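Interim report to the steering committee. The following record documents the input for GatB/YqeY domain-containing protein (151 residues).
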Amino acid sequence: MSDQSLTADIRAAMKAAMKAKDKERLGTIRLIQAEFKRIEVDERVEIDDARALAVLDKMVKQRRDSAQQYTDAGRSELADKENAEIAVLQEFLPAQLTEDEIIAMIDEAIAASGAEGMQAMGAVMGQLKPKLAGRADMGKVSGLVKGRLAG
């Protein structure tokens, strides 16, 4: 990753993939570009880094779900394609946090908000979401928060 915006990094990666004639990588990057363009046209907004991260995170989640369904259905070639796309998408996301790092951030958020019990789940998740976007699977984070609050 460079000092420029995430969208500029993705454009540069697309040019590099074109030059290298890397069809699979190029296809995935074009999917990213198409999703950004769709949002910009539909919502009349310019994609900033925070929104780009959210979009990439959602794309990874969709592919994980698809890969799991393909694996469950015994369609490993389709699951492999989804996993290859996940690998390309994750290149543009910040490094994933370890479970210990996530738990430390959850504990910090619970302490900062004085949250107690399951009714505080929304407040804790609200604090964590911007910090963890693109860096952790929010479904997993949700489960960890439930465990901490119930604990």
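The chain has two domains: 6-91, 99-150. The committee is asked to note this result when reviewing the revised timeline.
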